[in-house]
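Structure tokens please, single chain.
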Amino acid sequence: MNWLLVLAGGAIGAPLRYLTDRAVQARHDSVFPWGTFTVNVTGCLLLGLLTGAASHVQLLLGTGLCGALTTYSTFSYETLRLAESGAKGYAAVNVLASVTAGLGAAFAGVTVAGSLWP
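Here you go.
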């Protein structure tokens, strides 16, 4: 049963990541990977919010949805492509902003979850 929850969450998260990435990136005329940045920070916030949730909710939304929504491999690839194309400043900003915003979003999620579900 647990694997079905992860599968269902992933089936929602993967297309959501793709569609969100494309929608966000289409609105920015920049080489900076705003779409990946957005889905990763959003996933960190959601995962932080889920820290106190029941195990079946964590499997569905945490492992399944957030696992499919966020992407470390795309973040790494896009950062490498930025550096290789000569946009080293954007590559550095992507690393620093992604890590800082991701950790901040996870912390904010945990904090909000703690106040909603003490």
